[in-house]
Write a structure and sequence with these properties.
single chain; alpha+beta; four-stranded antiparallel β-sheet; 4 strands; elongated
Length: 429
């Protein structure tokens, strides 16, 4: 089945997979209408970004932050007052508007004027909130793409494992027929037939288990796409090719999904510190009131100017400033730690992807062909009257190596996705 391994050794993984699938005898597809358009990985991620409510929620929060930023730093609403001044409470005119010549009906207007520094700090805080909302949206997009890619690759890998096992099922069926023929010819035994049939049943269990994993992976896809995923899956991308090399990824950890919101966090902490410092600036207010006197006497106007007095800054404003400065130091230290964690994660993910690539190539070039050759030799020996145990052992190893290869290929794809969807701007297949 893999007799062309010398020609495939230099081929990229995508072409290996096409050759591998073409060499396997496939049963009828387990999924849906064969005339349906195959779902590509790129189409799945794009559809998920268009359909998922989670991303819509993030975008709504982003819009809300922009609306809040639009009003940040504005003057507080003015205050309009009504009242009666100098109302007599004794004598014959007590509690009446005309009981005293000093009694006035008043209407006033007061405007608080925060310092320019405080208003600018409020704008900076709102701007940082917008920045953080935008980075959260970008992180959510990347997270969705990674999870969709993982689900798609899991479904794709499980489906190809089912196809591969179904191809081996036909070889086991031939083995059972040979064992039965030897039994009828008197050169075999009933125990051989039972052993072969039991191994064939074990193969059916493996097929069912792989089919179940495909169903589960498709359910994960449905969670993101918002619709049933019954169409066949297209060919996978070439897992041996990444949109960025290792040095580029290590040089751009601050731009990767897990760290996208840290600059916004720092900016928010810096703005909060400036806002705390602005509390030391006096806050002014101006007021104007008009008083109408009764009994034909002259009306009056009152003008007032107020100012706050931050006199006890040591135990009030200074403590707030110190707290916000500590918050900023904590954010910066946590950012540095997150940067180190991301660097570690990139190195580990790259090492896993690189190792899995070598293992996939080793399986395809050496282990699978040798397992197939061993099974063919054992079958020929059994046909010639040899013992059945070498054939059973060879078949078990053949299934084990093919199953390992299919699952290793899925792991290879997941490792590829973990690196391919790290940056918002990329060119993934």
């Amino acid at each position: 089945m893999f007799s062309h391994r010398n020609r495939t050794r230099a081929l990229p993984v995508r072409r290996w997979l096409c050759l591998w699938a073409a060499m396997i005898l496939l049963a009828s597809p387990a999924w849906a209408d064969p005339s349906a358009t195959a779902l590509t990985l790129k189409a799945a991620t794009q559809q998920a970004l268009e359909q998922t409510p989670l991303l819509q929620a993030r975008q709504a929060k982003e819009d809300a932050a922009r609306e809040e930023a639009g009003r940040a730093g504005a003057l507080p609403d003015p205050q309009l007052t009504f009242g009666i001044d100098n109302l007599a409470i004794q004598g014959p005119g007590a509690f009446t508007a005309g009981g005293d010549t000093m009694t006035m009906r008043t209407v006033g207007y007061t405007q608080v004027l925060p310092s320019r520094t405080k208003r600018q700090a409020q704008r900076d805080v709102a701007g940082a909130n917008v920045e953080q909302a935008e980075s959260t949206t970008a992180m959510t997009r990347l997270g969705i793409e990674q999870q969709v890619a993982t689900a798609w690759i899991s479904a794709w890998g499980a489906h190809h494992e089912v196809q591969m096992l179904q191809g081996l099922r036909q070889e086991w069926a031939v083995d059972v027929v040979i064992a039965e023929a030897r039994l009828r010819g008197g050169s075999g035994s009933a125990a051989d037939v039972l052993a072969m049939r039991m191994e064939a049943l074990d193969l059916e269990n493996r097929i069912d288990e792989a089919a179940s994993r495909e169903t589960q992976a498709r359910a994960s896809l449905e969670r993101w796409l918002g619709a049933s995923v019954n169409q066949p899956l297209a060919d996978a991308p070439d897992f041996s090719v990444l949109p960025h090399d290792k040095s580029s990824l290590l040089a751009s950890v601050d731009e990767q999904g897990n760290l996208l919101d840290w600059p916004a966090r720092e900016h928010a902490a810096e703005a909060a510190l400036e806002e705390a410092k602005a509390e030391k600036h006096p806050e002014w207010s101006v007021g104007l009131s008009y008083g109408s006197r009764v009994n034909g006497l002259s009306d009056m106007v009152t003008v007032q100017v107020g100012v706050s007095l931050p006199l006890f800054t040591r135990n009030r404003q200074d403590r707030g400033i110190s707290a916000r400065a500590d918050d900023l130091d904590a954010i910066r230290s946590e950012h540095d730690d997150a940067r180190r964690q991301q660097t570690e994660a990139v190195r580990a993910a790259w090492a896993q992807w690189d190792a899995l690539g070598r293992q996939v190539r080793r399986h395809l070039d050496q282990l699978l062909p040798q397992a197939n050759d061993r099974a063919a030799l054992a079958l020929a020996s059994y046909r010639g009257g040899g013992d059945i145990q070498p054939l059973l052992d060879a078949r078990r190893d053949e299934i084990s190596h093919h199953t390992d290869f299919a699952r290793m290929l899925t792991d290879y794809g997941r490792a590829w996705a973990a690196l391919a969807y790290l940056l918002p701007e990329r060119n993934t297949p």
